[in-house]
Amino acid sequence: MPNSLQDTTTLHNGVKMPWFGLGVFKVQEGEEVVESVKAAIRNGYKSIDTAAVYKNEEGVGQAIKDSGVPREELFITTKVWNSDQGYENTLQAFETSLEKLGLDYLDLYLIHWPVAGKYKDTWKALEKLYKDGRVKAIGVSNFHVHHLEDLLSIAEIKPMVNQIEYHPHLTQKEVHDFCKKEGIQLEAWSPLKQGVLLDEPVIVEIAEKHQKSPAQIILRWDLQNEVVTIPKSIKETRIIENADIFDFELTSEDMEKISSLNKNERIGPDPDNFNF
């Protein structure tokens, strides 16, 4: 189990990815995103997750520059948006993202959603970027098992990561089991279900027992399930608190109680039914 914020999981190509990072979904471009990323890096975070559609890549890049931390010590993820999918478009979108971030390579580049009829060509572009050394690892986001199987049927390089909505109300066991079997690292977005889970009585009770916050309990549950997690926050106190999860361990009984809260309930769209 990871025992510090700097601990990493090794992806199937040997690249080391931090177990824990900062997500910047819905964080405003400009001062808000710059300050939140700087706060995270100042407090020991190494992994920052953004996306073209978040429209804050420039701020993330600015914060990286301002942080003074050597580039190779950081792990930066961004994603290709749906309207930019397809082979040539993806290659172009990658250049745009890299330019906005002010970086000369990415650590992880993801297909944001499985756009029907396009994600295979998009994957071919990611494979090219990977072979050209422009990105250290490539993966997908919001892929169900059938999307993964379809992609694997043509992939020369297996995705290293699948980032999905994952929390105690949506444990996605089928996807998790499939990814484990294939050596694809699962990563959680919206791990706290946008705060909905913080009042869940079972979680509150476990939190009191461990003298931790409900958020810390959920994030610890992710890690003990071997799921990389990237909670979002813009408050430095919360950024620090979210990462303060390496000094305790949930029992197997705690883990089962939390997992049994599953009701296959999403806060985001279903990857089989989205129209953007």
From TrEMBL:
Name of the featured protein: Aldo/keto reductase
Cross-referenced CDD domains, in alphabetical order? AKR_AKR5G1-3 (cd19157)
* Superkingdom as given in the UniProt entry: Bacteria
Keywords of the record, alphabetical order, are:
NADP, Oxidoreductase
The record's family statement is: Belongs to the aldo/keto reductase family.
Q: Where is the NADP-dependent oxidoreductase domain?
A: 29-262
